[in-house]
Amino acid sequence: MSNKEYGNQEVQILDFEELLRFIENKLEAAGKKVGREEIMLILQAQDDFLMEKGVLEEIDEM
Questions:
Q1: Which of 32, 37, 41, 55: disulfide with 27, CB 3.0–4.6 Å?
Q2: What is the pLDDT of residue 37?
Q3: Out of the domains of life, which is the source (predicted)?
């Protein structure tokens, strides 16, 4: 995870691979086995929802 400034806004950038590993580890610790493809689908749905609600927005990298 890193912080960058875009214009006058500070933006946090998350490492997607780190997020996937974290979720896989949490599920494994809970005795659950979920495939990476399924986790990615859920995360994409979450991103789409948050973007629709205006919580997240896409930015162009410079």
A1: 32
A2: 96
A3: Bacteria
Q: Would you state the structure tokens that stand for residue 56, as one six-digit string?
A: 């997240």
Around Cβ 7, how many Cβ atoms within 10 Å?
Answer: 7
CA separation for the pair 45, 41 (Å, rounded) = 6
pLDDT in tens, 1-48: 566 666 677 777 788 999 999 999 999 999 999 999 999 999 999 999
**61 backbone dihedrals φ, ψ, rounded to 5°:** -75, 140
Q: Report the C-alpha gap between 25 and 28 in whole angstroms.
A: 5
Give yes or no for residue 61 having a pLDDT over 80: no
Give the whole-angstrom CA distance, residue 19 versus residue 9: 23
Domain boundaries, the chain: 2-53
